[in-house]
Amino acid sequence: MGSDETQRLLLSETRDHSHVNEKSDLLQRRRTRRGGTSDTEIEQNGDLQTPLHPQSIYETQEAELNFKPVLFYLAAYLGTGTLCFFLASYQIQGIKTYGFLDALYFCVVTMTTVGYGDLVPNSTIAKLLACLYVFTGMALGGLILSKAADYIVEKQEVYLVKAICKAEKLGLEEVSKELVTKKSKYKFLLSISTFVVLMITGTVFLYFVEKLDFVDAFYCVCSTVTTLGYGDKSFSTPIGRTFAVFWILSSTICLAQCFAYLTDFYTEDRQRSLAKMVLTRKFSPRDLEAADLDGDKAVSAAEFVLYKLKEMGKINQEDVIAVMEIFRKLDYDQSGTLTEADFRNSQV
Amino acid sequence: MGSDETQRLLLSETRDHSHVNEKSDLLQRRRTRRGGTSDTEIEQNGDLQTPLHPQSIYETQEAELNFKPVLFYLAAYLGTGTLCFFLASYQIQGIKTYGFLDALYFCVVTMTTVGYGDLVPNSTIAKLLACLYVFTGMALGGLILSKAADYIVEKQEVYLVKAICKAEKLGLEEVSKELVTKKSKYKFLLSISTFVVLMITGTVFLYFVEKLDFVDAFYCVCSTVTTLGYGDKSFSTPIGRTFAVFWILSSTICLAQCFAYLTDFYTEDRQRSLAKMVLTRKFSPRDLEAADLDGDKAVSAAEFVLYKLKEMGKINQEDVIAVMEIFRKLDYDQSGTLTEADFRNSQV
User: Fold this and answer.
1) What is the pLDDT of residues A154-174, one digit of tens each?
2) Do residues A330 and B280 lie in contact, with contact meaning Cβ atoms separated by under 8 Å?
3) CB B245 within 8 Å of CB B114
């Protein structure tokens, strides 16, 4: 069998498999999403003609599933908090506007850890409630909201692909490929652009509505988005606090995502360099010997792929050890290969 | 060749390789650390007799390399900031003690985004400086300090292994294995214990030194470690601010690491479940057909490992495609395997 045929088999393995084995349902669905490009995926991205990166689609679908509950959790969390602090509003001191709005604003300022201090709890109960609220808020922000933000960025990416296609007059496939290999870079660029827009919006708002001078407006924006929140400048009008509820939530999460994507980008870049180094390194007769697992003086496609992926650090020893244990059990006749004979013998 | 021999070859592949190919130095070092357990690693962990998880050792070594520069960056960053804000101390208003200490305290409160607001900049220059300082501080904290914290946790783990060995009278190998498979869990437990100790230390300190009542001390601790920093309660004495410089830095980083390890733990747990599902799933004759890449009606060890790792989602299509391209180029005679003949022919 020629190497072309082997390659075809190797690449389509996952898809073939999803046809022949329809029993393990969950497993199969996972595999299809991760491995190949199923028909459903093509349909869902029908407006793009070409399907996006399967891994990306998998992540998007997973994020989509998680998006609605996230909104629900956020609403429940903010709702409960607002109600509690509204009922305890006489135990909160500071610059006040309307009871309910202040409670909501206090919740957002607390959960994002901005903590201006323009409203502070002044009873034991309110203080302990605020402590509880900020810890749960951190968990919600770190573990759940970041996923929702990621989902939005993934969605934006689809529009970005379309925009680039139009502007650069490139084929869709080219742009998609570029997007796949430099995924984190584009995510970072998207989030940083959104962040800049949010910064500008905040500064303009504080300048015109809260009547701060330009430097103070910018200073307050920086102090808020980083969750520093000195509190010497903050939102003190009813309209300002209404705006703040949405703006603080989105801008603080956006900045956190920027940093997360920057880290991803850095990691991905390093991995890509390593992979490139491994792939461009000359394959010598010595490598041939080392990669030849079954000692038949020939390196099969599977052996080669395994050898190179190990070199890239994508596979580690623990994984291989665990799989090899299973292999040994299945290899009934100890021949070093699994054949139909192994199945027949094991069932005797 | 029996499957035992194949397994021996498969598992020792990386080590063998580091003996035969001594040219590509950097690559080799990477490979040795990731793949096998070299002699140097055993020596370095000599006091434990058994080497720890190679991956962990690799990470520890890398972290160790990064640890000294991190301390240097932190010192340089805090030093520059302290000097700037000390020189501009007349542009900072609030509760003051000693000029230099206040500047350092202000730097720490700003870079960790606690932002009590007990000291705030009150000139344009000082405000813009604070904005710059908090952004760079976030980057330093997120991208660099977390690595240093991880290094410390890795070090602690070694002591934990020893402690468990003594207490539970278990063999070192057993404990190490447990530690490897549930790495994130132990990291999380270690960081959360450290965090609790830091919380108690802070509360006790505020109670005795800053003379806050118990609830206020606890409230101030919660407000600080979460970087909320309302600022109604903060450190106002010279001794308090000296303590705060170290305590705020360590406790905020520690809490952030707790959340990071919790996320890792969750991810690792999900991956482990998936791997277990893939490994325990019955391998049917249909799988045999799908895993048989070269169509010889027999699944070799390499084919089996590749098939299972793909199923686990540890390898994706892009990786395989990239490696297969190289394979095709090397397979000069298009036989579907690499042999010495391919090398001879390619050099003619």
Assistant:
1) 777 777 777 777 776 666 666
2) no
3) no
Q: Given this model, what pLDDT does residue B235 score? A: 94
Query: Does the pLDDT value for residue A18 go beyond 60?
Result: no
Closest approach of chain A CAs to the CA of B143, in angstroms?
7
Alpha helix ranges (H) inside A209-237: 214-225
Chain A residues within an 8 Å CB radius of B227? 113, 115, 227
Contact A222 B131 (CB under 8 A): yes
Q: Are B229 and B251 in contact (CB under 8 A)?
A: no
Contact of B155 with B141, CB cutoff 8 Å: no
DSSP A106-166: HHHHHHTT---SSEEE-SHHHHHHHHHHHHHHHHIIIIIIHHHHHHHHHHHHHHHHHHHHH
Closest CA to B318 of A275, A174, A262: A275
From chain B, the residues in CB contact with A298 under 8 A are 335, 337-339
Q: Say yes or no: B180 contacts chain A, CB-CB below 8 A.
A: yes
Q: Which long-range contacts (CB under 8 A, 24 or more apart) does A264-273 make?
A: A264/A184, A264/A187, A264/A188, A265/A184, A265/A185, A265/A187, A265/A188, A266/B143, A267/A184, A268/A182, A268/A183, A268/A184, A268/A185, A271/A312, A272/A181
- Domain A38-280 matching CATH 1.10.8: the answer reads no
ipTM: 0.76
Residue A203: which residues within 8 A CB-CB, separation 6 or more? A214, A217, A218, A221
How close B19 comes to chain A (CA, Å)? 10
Is residue B304 within 8 angstroms of chain A, CB to CB?
yes
Asked if residue B139 lies in contact with residue A258, where contact means CB atoms within 8 angstroms, the answer is no
Q: What is the pLDDT of residues B86-97, one digit of tens each?
A: 999 899 999 999
Interface contact A1, partner B, CB < 8 A:
yes
A143-157 per-position pLDDT tens digit: 777 777 777 877 777
All structural domains of chain B with their residue ranges: 25-280, 291-347
The rounded Cα B156 to chain-centroid distance in angstroms is 13
Q: How many residue pairs from chains A and B have C-beta atoms closer than 8 A?
A: 379
CATH code for the structural domain at A285-347: 1.10.238
Q: Pick the closest to residue A135 from B185, B196, B189, B246 (CA basis).
A: B196
pLDDT digit string, tens, across residues A250-281: 999 999 889 888 888 888 888 888 888 888 88
Please give the CATH number for the structural domain made up of B25-280. Answer: 1.10.287
Which residues of chain B make contact with A141, given a CB cutoff of 8 A?
A: none
Q: Is B62's Cβ below 8 Å from some Cβ in A?
A: no
Dist CA A17 CA A282 (whole Å): 34
**Three-state DSSP class for residue A203:** helix
pLDDT (tens digit per residue) in B151-200 = 788 777 777 777 777 777 666 666 666 666 677 888 899 999 999 999 99
Query: Is the CB of A65 inside 8 Å of chain B's CB atoms?
Result: no
Q: Is residue B19 less than 8 Å (CB to CB) from chain A?
A: no
- Chain A residues whose beta carbon lies within 8 Å of the beta carbon of residue B229: 113, 115, 117, 228-229
Angle at B71 between CA B66 and CA B76, to 5 degrees: 125
Tokens of A86: 């509204």
Per CB-CB distance under 8 Å, the chain B contacts of A10 are: 293, 320, 324
The answer to whether the Cβ–Cβ distance between A130 and B219 falls below 8 Å is yes
d(CA B10, CA A337): 14
* Distances, alpha carbon B296 to alpha carbons A200, A337, A340, B300, in Å: 64, 10, 11, 10
User: Of chain A residues 190-209, which have a CB less than 8 A from chain B?
Assistant: none
The verdict on a CB contact (< 8 Å) between B11 and A324 is yes
Please list every residue in chain A whose beta carbon sits closer than 8 Å to the beta carbon of residue B22: none
Tokens of A172: 């869709």
